[in-house]
Amino acid sequence: DGCGWRAPYTWAFELLDAGDKDPACPTCGGIVKSATVSFGQLLFPGVIEAARSLAVQADLMIAIGSSLVVYPAAGIPLDTLASGGKLVIVNDEETPLDDFATLVVRGKAGDVLGTAVEQLLG
Predict the structure, then answer these.
(1) 63 exposed, middle or buried (CB, 10 Å; 0-12, 13-18, 19+)?
(2) d(Cα 74, Cα 96) in Å, to the nearest integer?
(3) Which residue, among 71, 118, 119, 113, has the nearest Cα to 95 in the 3D structure?
(4) Sheet harboring 103-106: ordered strands across?
(5) What angle do CA 17, 20, 24 make, to 5 degrees?
(6) Burial of 76 (0-12, 13-18, 19+ CB in 10 A)
(7) In the prediction, which pLDDT does 36 show?
(8) Exposed e or buried b for every residue in 109-120, given b needs 16+ CB within 10 A?
(9) What pLDDT is recorded for position 1?
(10) SS3 content of the chain, % helix, strand, coil (to 5)
(11) What confidence score (pLDDT) does residue 108 get?
(12) CA–CA separation, 14 and 79 (whole Å)
């Protein structure tokens, strides 16, 4: 779970640039990792509520590389759709929300995003 110490990501980059190959937490000496959640881990409190709040305000939701089957996160694009926004899905496999999307870009994100952005920007 870690000790809870937090810093901007630039902290680690500065240490790496200075030659430290594996920066340790200055508080507990433990492993430093980004504030991500791996599959099966509990989400941080308030994250879903904050995401849903942003989703209902969005004109466009872009879901990239998600199967859109793991809830509660998979339901967030539905909040954008329910409030009148549009949904774009970029994924190499079908998702349950494909039929609701304005645009579905089929392929691996790293392979198709550059072309998709170029087409959107014209």
Answers:
(1) buried
(2) 9
(3) 71
(4) 60-64, 86-91, 103-106
(5) 120
(6) buried
(7) 76
(8) eeebbeebeeee
(9) 58
(10) 35, 15, 50
(11) 92
(12) 39
Strands 60-64 and 103-106: unpaired
Pair 88, 62: CB distance under 8 Å: yes
Q: Which residue blocks in the chain are alpha helix, DSSP H?
A: 10-17, 47-57, 76-82, 109-121
In total, the chain counts a number of residues equal to: 122
CA distance 45 to 86: 27
Structure tokens at 116: 């998709």
The model's pLDDT over 43-95, given as tens digits with 9 standing for 90+, comes to: 878 999 999 999 999 999 999 999 999 999 999 999 999 999 999 999 999 99
Query: And the tokens for 57?
Result: 């305000």
Task: Say which DSSP state 25 is in.
Answer: P
Residue with tokens 């990501």: 9
pLDDT tens readout for residues 20-37 = 988 889 999 988 887 777
